[in-house]
Design a protein that fits this description.
Elements (H helix, E strand, L loop, with lengths): L13 E3 L1 H7 L2 E6 L9 H14 L8 E5 L3 H13 L2 E7 L4 H9 L3 E5 L10 H15 L4 E3 L7 H8 L1 H8 L6 E4 L5 H13 L4 E7 L4 H7 L29 E5 L1 H15 L5 H17 L4 E6 L13 H6 L6 H4 L7
Parallel strand pairs: 2-10, 3-4, 3-6, 4-5, 7-8, 7-10, 8-9
Antiparallel strand pairs: 1-2
The structure holds 4'-deoxy-4'-aminopyridoxal-5'-phosphate (PMP).
Length: 338
């Protein structure tokens, strides 16, 4: 028996991905982070950040947690805050999926929607959340803290303490590589540091979506982006504090067509209904497997569920409007009459 929903965060299954493994002659494993109580890998960061704020004495009883998020961190923070008796204020770019915004409202988070702007613009959701946290800290008798997931290294420390060691234990230490995409970098850096501490020979890779600057940075030293992606929660234009010192050995770039092909195949053939970032991650794992050669074991992250993107990735009209292929099974509908 668990005494709180917070104890249900983490300890997620590690699932062998059949087609990716067959294709590469490697064992490709997906950590089922969509099975966390808040439905994503970000529950871990939310819990680690809140625990750290409490330990530092920054978050007082009845206080407010403020954050700028693409959604999943907010959902995790609201869950943790509700379980511990805090208030949550979330700033989200209006480009994010309706499903995530609905989940935030359903969780009781106070939602502030802002137009999507680059980080350099003071209207950017992260920058708005920082100012809001400062204002609420001054105005609210119980105080407020800014979770600051991008530059608060409690985020990556949470992954270093939990996600990385779990992967090591679940593979019996027989893991040769780990790959994932970056939003804050907490997962990549935390898992990377934990696995390297166990074995310096583990290859750590980044799978970067189009429109993100990190592939060019790790490949050639220059923070430079081109193109765009419909994936959410990933892509980064700067070296966040969580990314500083991340042990990255391998970098690849994954476009939406490749990522979505994998998302749809995993849903249709393996019963894994996932969001777009998981497709980027599995594509990255396949690239690293090809780079290392057959016989290796590579782990990646299955970040969240496809249910969170029903109105986008799994909507035929949306896909067509973006010029992306629509999988036939998505349009089969009710062909069998009752
Ligand atoms: N996938 C999804 C769906 C996410 O919401 C996030 C977090 N923004 C990530 C991947 C990336 O995780 P991290 O912030 O640890 O880099």
């Amino acid at each position: 028996m668990l005494t709180s929903v917070l104890d249900a965060i983490g300890h997620t299954p590690l699932i062998k991905l059949k087609r990716a493994s067959e294709l590469t002659g490697c064992t490709i494993l997906g950590k089922a982070e969509f099975m966390n109580p808040g439905g994503s890998v970000k529950d871990r960061a939310a819990l680690a950040i809140v625990e750290d704020a409490i330990a530092r004495g920054a978050l007082r009883p009845g206080g407010t947690i403020v954050e700028g998020t693409a959604g999943n961190t907010g959902i995790g923070l609201a869950l943790v805050a509700n379980a511990l008796g805090y208030r949550t204020v979330i700033v989200i770019p209006d480009t994010q999926s309706q499903e995530k915004k609905d989940l935030l409202r359903m969780s009781g988070a106070e939602l502030v929607e802002v137009p999507a702007k680059p980080y350099s613009d003071p209207g950017n959701y992260v920058r708005v959340s920082e100012r809001l946290a400062r204002r609420l800290a001054a105005e609210d008798a119980n105080g407020a803290v800014w979770a600051n997931q991008f530059d608060n290294v409690a985020n990556r420390a949470g992954h270093e303490r939990t996600t990385g060691p779990e992967i090591w234990e679940q593979t019996g230490g027989a893991v040769d590589g780990f790959v994932c995409a970056v939003g804050t970098g907490g997962t990549l850096a935390g898992v990377g540091l934990a696995l390297k501490a166990k074995s310096a020979g583990v290859t750590i890779g980044i799978a970067d979506p189009m429109g993100s600057a990190l592939f060019n940075y790790y490949d050639g030293g220059e923070l430079k982006a081109s193109g765009s992606s419909i994936t959410e929660g990933i892509g980064q234009g700067r070296i966040t504090a969580n990314l500083v010192g991340a042990p990255v050995d391998f970098a690849c770039q994954v476009d939406d067509r490749e990522a979505l092909g994998i998302v749809f195949a995993l849903a249709e053939e393996e019963g894994l209904l996932l969001g777009g970032s998981s497709g980027v991650n599995v594509a990255g794992a396949i690239r690293l497997a090809k780079h290392l050669g057959p016989g290796h074991t590579i782990a990646t992250i299955l970040c969240d569920s496809g249910a969170r993107y029903a109105s986008k990735l799994f909507d035929a009209d949306f896909l067509r409007a973006k010029g992306l292929p629509v999988p036939p099974w998505l349009e089969r509908g009710a062909r069998i009459s009752p």
